[in-house]
Every structure is written in structure tokens, then in C-alpha cells.
User: What shape does this take?
Amino acid sequence: MLELRLVQGSLLKKVLESIKDLVNDANFDCSATGFSLQAMDSSHVALVALLLRSEGFEHYRCDRNISMGMNLGNMAKMLKCAGNDDIITLKADDGSDTVTFMFESPTQDKIADFEMRLMDIDSEHLGIPEAEYHAILIMPSAEFARICKDLSSIGDTVVISVTKEGVKFSTRGDIGTANVVCRQNTTVDKPEEATVIEMPEPVSLTFALRYLNSFTKATPLSNTVTISLSSEIPVVVEYKIAEMGYIRFYLAPKIEE
Amino acid sequence: RGVQLSITNFYRSS
Assistant: This one.
């Protein structure tokens, strides 16, 4: 028996909107720790890892670890039917091949349930070793989204270079080149508006903008984004989900031919 | 531009 009640149902709506175009089908794993997912995109270039900790749910009942295969497009369609203020409850009986999403309006005057068929998904779970990152960049998530969108109108790939002076996002395409430099800036009114570069060891990596742009669909989940870079390993783009967990996107770099 | 590496070049099945 599984029953997860999430008062801030809009979080789950936002999570699905942020991953449904990157991953088609995925297994949601439910354990005492929380509700989680790990999945690669179909070309195995990017990986998404989601964790919603059990403590973040108003009610969390998960009698035994289960893995529920879902088509994320279909799940997003169902969650779109929930109001932004609705409380969302996920329910599944042992051995059942369906999951039920229940939506309650805040005033309890409307209750809807949507039942979705589960799928058998053969997915491999990857071990992600702890890595020491050369540079960790924390910046407003909207600013990062803006940079990725702007640069993708010029080129297909971005070179992200960190130096003591700041972080530079560069692209080039048929029509020309573009460089955006962000300097560390902690003298702002609100902490979420700061740009912070921790451990600024020089590092320079190239990534496909198409994927970074897809990751920025998670922008509504968090005011800030944390970008962890190290030479020759995937970048981690993390959006923290207030008091519940995180959504992390891993993107493999491009290398010179 | 450049060769796109795969996530599976870095992380193995656990």
C-alpha cells in the first residue's frame, strides 16, 4: 500500500513539466527515504535525478519499496488537471498495475481522482560517484535560463569557463559569436539574487545548449540554480525543491574531435 | 562541433 499526500501539489506539477520533454518513460521509486526517480534521456546524454523526501509529505505511507513505471507525458497530462492550489495524493495498492492521483481543492469542495496504468520499464540505475568539483556556481535560476535561451539563438553549444574573475558562457554560430560573463556578486538585497562562485579553480567545458535549455524548465521550482563543474566529467545542474529535496540534471560534455 | 559523450561513459550500472 502506497499513499503519499503532498499539500503543495503544484510542486509535483512543476517537477513533471520540467522532465517530461527530456525523458519519456521512467520508474518512480518509493521507499522510506522518499519518492525518487533516476532516468536518462533517450540518447543517454543527460540524466535526471529527483528526490522528494518523505518528511516533505503531509502523509507518507510506503509499506515496502516499490518501483512504478510511468509514461511521463501521460503523468503530466493527469497532473495538469490538478489546480495549482490543490493537494495531490498518490495512491497504489500492492500488486496493482495502476496508480491513482487524487486532487483536493484547498476548501475540500472538489475532489477528483485520476487513475493511470503503470508500465513495465526496463531501466538501468546508474551509480553516481561523489565527485570533487573544481567550481560551483550558484546563481539566480531565471538568469541562467535567460543566458541559455539567448545563446541558443546564436549557436548550438556553449563553452562554460570559470576563472577567478567570473564565469563566461560563450557560443558561436553562423551569424556570429556571443559571450556572457557573470561576476561574483554577493552585494544584493536578497540572497537568491546573488551570484556566487565557490572553489573557483579554472575549468572550461563544452555542452550542448539544447539540453541545458531543457533543464531550465525546472526554473519555477527554485529561485537559484547550482551548477557544479569539473574537468572531463558531466556538469550537474541542481534545482533545490524547498524543504523536500532536489532535481538534478547531469549532462555529459562534448570534447574536441 | 565536437563529439558528444554519453552519460554511460562516466557512470556505471549500480
Q: What stands out?
A: The mean pLDDT of chain B is 90. The interface with chain A takes residues 1-14 of chain B (CB under 8 Å). The CA atoms of residues 5 and 11 of chain B lie 12 Å apart. Chain B is about 0% helix and 30% strand.
